[in-house]
Amino acid sequence: MNLVPQRFIFRLGFASQTSSLKVNSIPSHGRRKLSTITFSLAAPKQSGEEVLVVVGGGAAGIYGAIKAKTLAPNLKVVVIEKAKPLSKVTTQFVCQNFWRGRCNVTNGHCPDNKILAEHYPRGHKEFRGSFFHTHGPMDTMSWFSDHGVALKEDGRVYPTSNSSSTIIDCLMSEAKRSGVLLQTGKVVTGASSTADGKFAVKLEKHSLDYVEHVEADYLLIASGSSKQGYNLATQLGHSIVEPVPSLFTFKIADLKLAELSGVTFPKVKAKLQLEGIQKNIPQLTQVGPMLVTHWGLSGPVVLRLSAWGARYLSSSDYKGTLCVDFTPDLHIEDLKSALSRHKSQFLRQKVLNSYPSEFTVVKRFWKYILDCEGICGDTLWSSISNNLLFSVASLLKDCAFSVKGKGQFKDEFVTAGGVPLSEIYLDTMGSRIHSHLYFAGEVLNVDGITGGFNFQNAWTGGYIAGTSIGNLAGVAYNRVNQKLYTKTFGS
């Protein structure tokens, strides 16, 4: 029998236990009519066996699946992933051209969990509680170390291999070892609760005309920022905060700036100004490294601003002004004094060929500053007026760039939005609407700034959800076996 073009409905893992076969004809919405092969499960399940379906094979989903299976070996754990498992581990949270290919496992800068929580534009209030106390950065580092991954730390935490494949290989190996089942190329398109408190889960393969209907005792939605997870959440009664991009670069309308592509600044102070925002928002001023690209500005300082300003930027159509202080450790009077001293020492030199060493900028950028002030590079220092020197100092301290939109590379993105944290219990990651329904990772209205914080949200949420499910499944298994023992041998 050629099974490929047909639709299947079966109880996951028990197809071999069927005792009857029924073939029905169902509509195919404009396509040819197809057959439904229904396997009825007359044979009983193994004693006490339950099923967990994990939607999404990313960091949160795989980590949660491993934890649940470890705590409850008799729990059948199946991860459904439409694409390549853990693919976002390679690209997520990596600044364009800054740390390409390195994998931020977590962040080692924040031993205080309350301080750690402050790195989440969405979630900083809720995460001040028990969330990271349950499984924080040190716990994550210990887990990977215990599973053979050597780590190093420079604030961010990386595998010593500098390769994200080390993390992927570790997780996939542990999932296989613990007995987690992984099914790829499938999409969970529907979920509903049944009369007996379980979940009816619908799976499809879009490349084929193929559908599975699976019954699950537990459901963990860890599908990242895909519409798939949001749709499932709404089907099960949850609301969704409208998703908008976070962690992106800025397009800048400045042809002269484009000539500086590749220039980096180890430390700048940048303030984002947007129309319609009158109140002072401290997080819209950030300090850190910045990179010039051929389309605009990038680097950690810009990505942090995009995260904290994600919703404001969305409502302003990603237009505003970025004011950059290129010498944040120097007062403007210090700059003026440095320029005056340099002028007096190098009267006969061209302004393009020398400038104060305190500025710690490259020559290409110095030329950009001179061009902005209309100063020809061949002009001698002796010809520069004090007023012009002060204008240069002012520009270095407050250089305004017109933001015209988001950058074009989506591999830096995470999403602000998703299931509100008010609709789940953070101590279990369980739904407040449905028992045995859990969420973890970016499907929730949580996002962090760059530096391993988004991964830590995935590890913590996955760990808590997996622990909750594993403990419940273990109790259920023991309860069933106790009943069988009592029935067989008496009390």
Automatic annotation (TrEMBL):
Residues 244-414 form the RsdA/BaiN/AoA(So)-like insert domain. Residues 52-467 form the RsdA/BaiN/AoA(So)-like Rossmann fold-like domain. It holds the Pfam family HI0933_like. Its cofactor is FAD. It comes from the Eukaryota. Keywords: FAD, Flavoprotein. This is FAD/NAD(P)-binding oxidoreductase family protein. It comes from Anisodus acutangulus.
